[in-house]
Design goal:
This protein is an alpha/beta fold and 314 residues long. The chain contains ten helices and eight strands. 42% of the residues are buried.
């Protein structure tokens, strides 16, 4: 009996250890590539397939404007062969690791994209935006992934970065990258059809913050305004800002106010109630959908947004 009891305890403890080991693997403690944002993580997995382990620092549903790197992130960055970032001020939380020299190789995936510049009054403010700051990105819009043509440039940059870091699989990365760019071309055409189904006089966008400028420019929509001023979710609207926005919504005949799934829609809902327009609070601005949903990929997110916008404005 004692022997059987001891054996049972050994098996039980072994099972617990196995579960803990599995949890460690799922937590992404060791990765070949670190992606700073969920969009870059999703694109990198499209290119890498199952050849590499990719860990994303800012996961789905998390606002990158408010994210701060922790000690675990710094360790993972130091262990990875390659770090892929968005740049343009979106993932400045990575700067701590770069300054400490912990990252082996860092590639900015948005290189080569023609950046949209916000109006001067909408520029990002904060301690990192002081005059003369090397990381001053005031007025440059980091939300480039809302235009499929920009995403194709990001894919090319990711392909080249992976091919250089892992040359044995370069041919596969390039093949996967070309295949995904074809998906993005089809996505672009489908989005255009959806937006063209909206009556021209209704193609007006009010959003929670100024995150959809590239999408608006690409598909011929009109940007009316945002609840939170600027390109970051960290801005705070004044009472006058909100009053002016409500007046504009009424005068322009705006059909809906769009808020994002990762940003508190409380103020947007209040404005919608005051102006008697529809509130739509499930767009993907700074994030993607949870794993397993249609919006967990960049092209899936773009289509989900386009369908939501078209349905609300028709």
């Amino acid at each position: 009996m004692a022997l059987r009891a001891s054996l049972a305890w050994v098996l039980l403890l072994g099972g617990i250890a196995g579960l803990l080991a599995g949890c460690g693997e799922d937590s992404g403690d060791s990765a070949d590539v670190i992606a700073t944002t969920v969009q870059i993580g999703a694109l990198t997995r499209q290119v890498a397939g199952d050849l590499l382990v990719v860990h994303t620092l800012v996961g789905p549903g998390v606002d990158p404007h408010e994210y701060e790197a922790n000690a675990t992130d710094l360790r993972r960055i130091g262990d990875a062969k390659l770090v892929l970032r968005n740049g343009i001020g979106l993932d400045e939380f990575l700067d701590r690791a770069l300054e400490s020299g912990e990252a082996e190789r860092v590639v900015t995936t948005t290189e080569g994209i023609e950046l949209r510049h916000a109006d001067e009054e909408s520029e990002v403010e904060g301690d990192h935006a002081e005059e003369g700051d090397d990381h001053d990105h005031r007025g440059e819009d980091p939300h480039v992934w809302h235009d499929p043509l920009n995403v194709k440039i990001m894919v090319d940059n990711i392909v080249e970065a992976l091919a250089e870091a892992f040359p044995d699989d370069a041919a596969t990365f390039r093949q996967n990258g070309d295949a995904y760019k074809a998906v993005l071309d089809r996505t672009d055409a489908e989005i255009r059809q959806l937006i063209e189904s909206i009556p021209p006089e209704n193609r007006k966008m009010v959003t929670n913050h100024d995150a959809f400028g590239y999408f608006i420019d690409r598909y011929g929509l009109t940007y009316v305004g945002a609840v939170i001023p600027g390109l970051s979710t960290q801005g705070e609207p004044s009472a006058k800002d909100l009053a002016d926005l409500e007046e504009t919504i009424r005068s322009e005949g705006v059909k809906a106010i769009f808020a994002e799934s990762s940003v508190d829609p409380k103020v947007a809902r209040e404005i919608a109630s005051d102006t008697n327009v529809r509130i739509v609070d499930d767009l993907y601005g700074d994030s993607l959908g949870e794993e397993g949903t249609d919006a967990a990929t960049v092209h899936g997110m773009l289509l989900a947004n386009a369908r939501t916008i078209a349905n609300a404005l028709r």
